[in-house]
Fold:
Amino acid sequence: MALLEIRFYSRVLELSMGANIILPERQDAWQKAPAVLYLLHGLSGDHTSWIRRSSIERYVMDYNLVVVMPDAHKSFYCDMAHGSDYWKLFAEELPERIQQWFRVSNDWKKTFVAGNSMGGYGAMKLALGRPDLFSHAASLSGALDIASHIHDDWNDAKLRTFRAVFDAVGRVPGSGNDLLHQIERIETVPETEYYVCCGLDDWLYPDTVKFREAAAEKGLYLTSEESAGTHEWGYWDTQIQRVLDWLPIEKLEK
Structure:
């Protein structure tokens, strides 16, 4: 695999952005346009997190797949109440740029999104909001019930982050940033397939349970797994391998 670290100017953000991109090196991979996985980082991470903290580059060696790992800062992949339009970046501009820069597939069936923690929230938010773009979405220990985590007893730094993204504390419930509310509002069940996993000892485990229950009630296509684990990279490194097995990605002949 080839690893590129790129800088590009986002027209949406009016800001220089960073991304790491894993590309197949084999010639036969490019004879068919590779699938694309947008792999999103957590709240304390950046576009280098999956490369530095997991073995994702090694795990995708035999797949006809391009992995795009962009920087999202502390945006929660949202159009921020007091900041920039990160949702528009990831739901519109970045996929268009990737199509322009690389010979990747433009087939909805070969476009995926996944992430850990804040990135798990982002993956589900993107898939629920753009079912026409993402055929599969995976959350690894995702913060899938943001509304339940907005507390006045948080430290100042965390409160500033949440207020910048969601405005006043308490405005998430019932809004477009409330994933459970988004599921409730679905009228026609999309073809998008969802995958959620979380460690049983993870403080975000209740979020996964609530998301799973809401998805089941609505009839979404959902795969759910749970096992021992906490909110840490050892768990995510293991689970991303299971996500890759779950995704419908063509394997290259050896």
